[in-house]
Amino acid sequence: MTVAKEMQTWKRILADSIMRPEDLPPWLEVEGANTRQVIARYPMRVNPYYLRLIRRKGDAIYRQCIPDPREIADEAGTEDPLNEEGLSPVQGVIHRYPDRVAFLVSSTCAVYCRFCNRKRKVGRPGTIGEASIGEGIAYIRSNSQIRDVLLSGGDPLLLSDRKLQGLLAELRSIPHVEILRIGTRVPCTLPQRITPRLVSMLKKFHPLYLHTHFNHPEEITSEAAAACGALADAGIPLGCQTVLLKGVNDSPDTMKLLMQKLLTIRVRPYYLFQADLVRGTSHFWTPLSKAMEIMAALQGHTSGLCVPHFAIDLPGGGGKVPLLPEYAVGVAGDCLVVRNYRGELHQVPLYGGWKKKR
């Protein structure tokens, strides 16, 4: 396929996206007036590729991409629960941790996910542009403690190849920036974007890592597998950051199958996140006990490669905190009593087999 045809394919799919509820197929018809109110506040975009993954109204794919009246009916949560705006020294740069930043370089996505933690920004023209990107590069260049830059958005891979290459080249020219990462849902929501030309360009900027985002086994299609395979063949390590979502993937069987299928397309499960407390998303929230149940169902019941870190992104910008099910039960003498994945109790010497010296 020629470069022109490659670009035409994914751009055509994107151009044919559904942006209004009345343009949905009849079998997915939603209540028009309420949904129009939702998208007036939180824009809608579902491209034809992702739309065809919906098997029935209300299924896991439908819930992720079709606007829901509950998004404006329930005011629980806040617009910016992670205090990203407060942690932005310049527009578009989130500097939460000492040695790394998230750099917002795009305000658009191939699909506008209804659970997005940046609902306040995504799909809104003017929130990110040339000026904010220039300010971001200047800030990163002036701050020598920054060694790791995560490109985020929106979706950085919706930038043109030329713009993305220029941006990566600019960042790679900064001596103290050692690691470049891209956060993108494109391999899941628009895998046609992963063209040979794009992959050939990205491989010039190693060490480069890509964090993608699959939430359900039915998102792992032959097209997604081909996209991830092309990136992996270019030496780009792939990790998945999944969000635990009520009615989408909040069952042990679904999550185990998702993690197993990710490995078959050469994507390493990285994080499983508790859904952020974003206004308009409370119908996706799950209790922490559900997350612990799922993590316990993964640990020991499938390959360790399939087990992500479960983490909460603390409200107010406190950062990520990993959590695990409680395996340590107590202490008996000089031994720690632990429970294994079968529920059996075992004693492990606290001091490597040696008794504590008195």
What brief labels describe this structure?
358 residues, alpha/beta, TIM Barrel, 2 domains, 9-stranded mixed sheet, 12 helices, 12 strands, 30% helix, globular
Relative strand content: 15-25%
Largest sheet: 9 strands, mixed
The span between the termini is 75 Å
- In DSSP terms (H or I, runs of 4 or more residues), the helix count works out at 12
Top CATH class of the largest domain: Alpha Beta
Q: Give the low-pLDDT segments.
A: 354-358
What is the overall shape? globular
> How many distinct folded domains?
2
Order of helices and strands: HHHHHEEHEHEHHEHEHEHEEEEE
CATH architecture of the largest domain: Alpha-Beta Barrel
Q: Which fold name corresponds to the CATH topology of the largest domain? A: TIM Barrel
Looking at CATH, the homologous superfamily of the largest domain is Aldolase class I
* Rg calculated over all Cα atoms: 22 Å
Characterise the protein shown here.
The chain has helices spanning 3-15, 32-41, 48-51, 60-65, 70-73, 130-142, 161-172, 186-189, 196-202, 222-233, 252-264, 288-298, and strands at residues 93-97, 100-104, 148-152, 179-183, 208-212, 238-244, 268-274, 309-314, 319-323, 328-332, 335-339, 345-349. The chain is of the alpha/beta class. It has 2 domains: 74-323, Aldolase class I (TIM Barrel, Alpha-Beta Barrel), CATH 3.20.20.70; 326-358, no CATH class. A 9-stranded mixed beta sheet has the order 1-2-3-4-5-6-7-8-9. Strands 10-11-12 form a 3-stranded antiparallel beta sheet, with no helix packed on it. α11 (252-264) crosses α12. The model is unreliable at 354-358 (pLDDT under 50).
